[in-house]
Amino acid sequence: MFFTKFIILTVSIYVVLLIFLYFYQGKLLYHPNVNSYTEVDNLIPKIEKVNIPTSDNLNLLGWFHKKDISKKTILFFHGNAGSLENRIYKLNHFENLDLNFLIIAWRGFSGNSGKPSEQGLYDDAKSAVRWLESNGIREEKIILCGESLGAAVAIEIAQNKNFTGIILESPFTSMVEMGKKYYSFFPVSLLLKDRYESINKIKNIHIPVLVMHGKKDSIVPFEMGKKIFTSANSPKFYYFSEYDDHMMDYNKLLIEKLKSFIESLN
């Protein structure tokens, strides 16, 4: 009798957890208010705060550094947590790369209205491309640059397009595989709404690719980044650091690799 009650209680708890995971998975995936990443107060490049209109009538905050629209432009997509300020330590190094850059905050992040979702972020990214094009910067002059979740978004919009190149920092293969890593006792593949299947899309990219990943990444396993690199079409390049965690150190070696890759692009 006790054993039967125990089984019933265990199954009931498991079902409740399944329901919780299904309906609250967005809060587990997107963390706009987390501020545990590196934050630097002094933004060196001069930027203009711009509004990026989306197809569903949202306005996204963007920081635009305009050097010369005839030069290449990095379009930077951040990850699933934190604010634009958390990326200042990266943006400061773009000052010496002789290019323009635009970084956008996702819907629901950095004071933006809206609720983040896979399709919503894809729309945000495409809206940023349209904004650049409306300001005289052609697709062929845009370098996509995505960090973690932002890498998955960059991969999505780069498929069968003619961007200058794409830079993937700490990319994962799919959110399904990530979910299995963190929630192995649950049927993640059945529950997950936002799947970000990058590994199935990378073959549809026919522009130069740079994959950067730290071997000490405690969030996205390094093997995922390596698999993305292996699956990518040529020309492809990598920067695999022995000691970097998830948010990579923009040190001299990484910056030199970035600069070399960017200078190699037509």
What does this structure look like?
The protein is of the alpha/beta class and 266 residues long. It has a single domain (2-264), classed as Alpha/Beta hydrolase fold, catalytic domain (Rossmann fold), CATH 3.40.50.1820. Helices cover 36% and strands 17% of the residues. The protein is built from eight helices and eight strands; from the N terminus they run αβββαβαβαβααβαβα. It has helices at residues 2-29, 88-94, 118-134, 149-158, 175-182, 188-191, 222-231, 252-264, and strands at residues 48-53, 59-65, 73-77, 100-104, 142-147, 165-169, 209-214, 236-241. The chain has an eight-stranded mixed sheet with strand order 1-2-4-3-5-6-7-8, with helices on both faces. α4 (149-158) links the parallel β5 (142-147) and β6 (165-169). It is globular and about 75 Å long. The model has no long low-confidence stretch (mean pLDDT 93).
Give a short overview.
This protein has 266 residues and is α/β, with parallel strands linked by helices.
Compile the SSE list and pairings:
Elements: H1 2-29, E1 48-53, E2 59-65, E3 73-77, H2 88-94, E4 100-104, H3 118-134, E5 142-147, H4 149-158, E6 165-169, H5 175-182, H6 188-191, E7 209-214, H7 222-231, E8 236-241, H8 252-264
Parallel strand pairs: 3-4, 3-5, 5-6, 6-7, 7-8
Antiparallel strand pairs: 1-2, 2-4
Helix pairs in contact: 3-4
Q: State Rg.
A: 19 Å
- Helix-strand makeup class: alpha/beta
According to CATH, the homologous superfamily is Alpha/Beta hydrolase fold, catalytic domain
Give the fraction of residues assigned to helices: 25-40%
Return the CATH architecture. Answer: 3-Layer(aba) Sandwich
Q: What is the topology, as strand order, of the major beta sheet?
A: 1-2-4-3-5-6-7-8
Count of strand segments? 8
Domain module tally: 1
List the uncertain runs.
Answer: none
Q: Biggest sheet: strands, sense, closure?
A: 8 strands, mixed
Shape: globular
Strand content: 15-25%
In round numbers, the mean pLDDT is 93
Please identify the oligomeric state: single chain
In DSSP terms (H or I, runs of 4 or more residues), the helix count works out at 8
In the CATH scheme, the class would be: Alpha Beta
CATH fold-level topology: Rossmann fold
Order of SSEs, N→C? HEEEHEHEHEHHEHEH
Distance between the termini: 73 Å
